[in-house]
Design brief:
This protein is an alpha+beta fold. It is built from 18 helices and 25 strands. Strands 4, 5, 16, 17, 18, 19, 20, 23, 24 and 25 form a ten-stranded mixed sheet that branches. Strands 9-10-14-12-13 form a five-stranded antiparallel sheet. Strands 3-6-8-7 form a four-stranded mixed sheet, with helices on one face. Helix 10 runs antiparallel to helix 11. The structure holds flavin-adenine dinucleotide. Flavin-adenine dinucleotide binds next to strand 7, helix 7 and strand 14.
Length: 581
């Protein structure tokens, strides 16, 4: 190990007693290819041998319009991320080298190399980070995509937890993505696992985010169902962590954010019973005037409070800037008739004002057997409009994604903010409706009901309370998300003036919501790159405990991400910015 870096990384004990790094350390000061201490060819060759030939030089692939629309193509590229950048924040930039890890031993070799040579290391699974935390210029990438083994276990007992009753679980490699896990667990085995809504998101990234799926009001966050993980820590040790072994580290990876505490190589998640039905309601209503739209917002808030604020309904609605309400909600355990009964009074109410409110298209309300929800063959035959498929020759048949997620593939972010809205607001319906209406004057506002656990099952909340996510999630009826984006920056040059204008409008819209929810927290993986007071926003009262985990398992700050645990001690995140800013 090089001595100068040892000195720069020397730990200081802070007033809190938690070990801290000196400002200016870590990412920005890690050695770069231009540095004379950059590892020489022989050192890289030694790493290549240690990882059995899986060290690769990273370059951008050649791109076609079709490949840029395909999240599976992007996920298969070591040099790309699903978001192409964020104005004034970061631009997707390939690493210099990547270890395309196939085993835990490869990850250990990469971690040891990064530590010993003081090179910047980043970790990438599904590549969906909005904040750009899975890419960095001049870095060594640990790319887990190839570690995608999935195994169903009938009677799993976490290591060292003798006496704990065996339970059904699924064990997945860190590179697995949710679509393939759903295929194995639900479509093929008729069970349920709590993952994310977007099918191409990585399992390890989502679990560390906390992470929500459409049915989280019923099952909790993805992190809440984690039973055990294997993780390589900064010292190169391979640890099997669970409630009985290294319990603080186990707790920390359940929502503490990816890329800060070590490299996860395997995760074991609880399998739940699958309900009979999953379904949805897709309704779009246009209002003829601002006044009519304000009335519509109020009508929906009333409906939500009285009919939808329960474990059965998740996903989202959007109050659009152009006076349109777009409802895309999903249901759980309700058959078609039960779902229609919920919506009938609201649709009748809309129908009473034909000059003010109009259905943009025929509403779709229905249910399908839950086992078919992620069944690619079923979707291809009976619900082709709801999904897109990876059409590359030889692509697995279950490589599908929701049509509604298509806009996000390769997008360039202009602005993005989130806020957990407390359920107490449902007791002030007029104030809430006023705030939503006022926000929608600036930009379209989404409410994601499955990303706030109030109104859900008690068991879901109880499990989630045992994670590092901001406890505000338990009291929130929804996560408000306001986002703006433009076309991919991989092939075009972003319109920076327009992007900054959009970002201001997003900020103004969120400011309206903060008038009624001034202390709202934000979801770590779907929030602003420029989030102020991010430690409190993401983790609330859990943050000091997370800092203690960081100090114990990564005292020298080998793992570093923007707004990650402990990163406030570093002055520069080392990103490439638009215009080199
Ligand atoms: C199109 C899209 C849809 C989304 N939908 C949802 C959704 O439905 N629900 C939801 O809750 N969130 C959603 N998100 C947010 C997403 O869950 C998070 O960004 C998540 O962290 C992505 O994980 P990943 O592995 O795909 O991404 P990556 O960018 O690869 O990883 C995310 C972070 O985790 C770290 N990481 C990845 N693998 C490991 C590992 N093995 N060990 C340690 N650290 C690791 C990375 O370094 C990075 O910091 C969505 C994001 C996008 C872009």
């Amino acid at each position: 190990m090089s001595e100068p870096s040892m000195n720069r990384r020397q730990l200081l004990a802070g007033a809190t007693g938690i070990a801290m790094l000196r400002p200016g350390d870590a990412a920005a000061d890690r050695i770069r290819p231009s540095d004379r201490r950059w590892p020489n060819a022989a050192a890289w060759e030694a790493l290549n041998r240690a990882v059995e030939g899986h060290l690769i030089k990273v370059a951008m692939p050649s791109l076609t319009p079709a490949s840029l629309r395909n999240p599976y193509f992007i996920g298969d590229q070591p040099g790309m991320t699903q978001t192409s950048g964020w104005v004034d924040a970061w631009m997707s930039t390939p690493s210099v080298y990547a270890v395309a890890a196939q085993s835990t031993a490869h990850v250990v070799a990469a971690v040891d190399f990064a530590r010993e040579h003081d090179v910047r290391v980043v970790i990438k699974g599904g590549g969906h980070s909005y904040q750009g935390t899975s890419n960095a210029p001049d870095s060594l990438l640990i790319w887990t995509r190839g570690m995608d083994h999935i195994e169903l276990l009938d009677g799993f007992v976490p290591k060292g937890c003798d006496g704990v009753a065996p339970q059904p679980a699924v064990s997945v490699g860190a590179g697995a993505i949710w679509m393939h896990v759903y295929d194995a667990v639900t479509t093929k085995a008729g069970r349920y696992v709590q993952g994310g809504g977007c099918t191409t998101v990585g399992v390890a990234g989502l679990v560390q985010s906390g992470g929500f799926g459409s049915f989280s009001k019923n099952f909790g966050t993805a992190a809440a169902s984690l039973l055990e993980a294997e993780i390589v820590t900064a010292d190169g040790a391979v640890r099997v962590v669970n409630a009985c072994s290294d319990p603080e580290l186990f707790w920390g990876i359940k929502g503490g954010g990816g890329g800060s505490l070590g490299v996860i190589t395997r995760l074991t998640l609880k399998m739940h019973d699958l309900p009979d039905w999953f379904g949805g309601a897709f309704i779009t209503i246009a209002a003829a005037s601002d006044a009519a739209f304000r009335r519509l917002v109020g009508g929906f808030v009333d409906l939500y409070r009285n009919r939808l604020f329960n474990p059965y309904w998740g996903e989202s609605v959007e109050f659009r800037h152009g006076n349109v309400l777009a409802i895309s909600m999903v249901s759980h355990s309700l058959d078609r008739q039960q779902a229609e009964d919920v919506w009938r009074p609201f649709l009748d109410w809309v129908g009473e004002s034909p000059r003010e409110l109009a259905l943009v298209r025929e509403p779709i309300i229905g249910s399908i057997p839950a086992r078919q929800w992620w069944d690619a063959a079923y979707r291809r035959q009976y619900r082709p409009a709801s999904v897109k498929f990876d059409d590359r020759p030889g692509a697995p048949a279950d490589n599908m994604w929701w049509t509604g997620d298509g806009d996000q593939v390769g997008w360039f972010l202009h602005g993005y903010e989130s806020a957990w809205l407390p359920a107490s607001l449902l007791g002030q319906q007029e104030n809430l409706a006023d705030a939503l209406f006022a926000a929608s004057r600036h930009w379209s506002v989404g409410l994601h009901f499955n990303k706030g656990l109030a109104g859900g099952l008690v068991a879901a909340a109880t499990r989630t309370r045992e994670t590092a996510t901001n406890p505000a999630v338990l009291d929130a009826f929804a996560l408000a998300i306001i986002g703006a984006f433009g076309p991919s920056a991989y092939t075009g040059t972003p319109d920076l003036a327009a992007a900054r204008r959009d970002a201001r409008a997003v900020g103004a819209a969120m400011a309206e919501l903060r008038k009624v929810a001034p202390d709202a927290g934000a979801y770590v993986s779907e929030s602003s790159f420029f989030q102020s007071d991010w430690q409190r926003a993401y983790w609330g009262t859990n943050y000091p405990r997370l800092r203690a985990v960081k100090a114990r398992y990564d005292p020298d700050g080998l793992f570093f991400v923007h707004h990650g645990v402990g990163s406030e001690e570093w002055s520069d995140d080392g990103f490439t910015r638009v215009n080199g800013r």
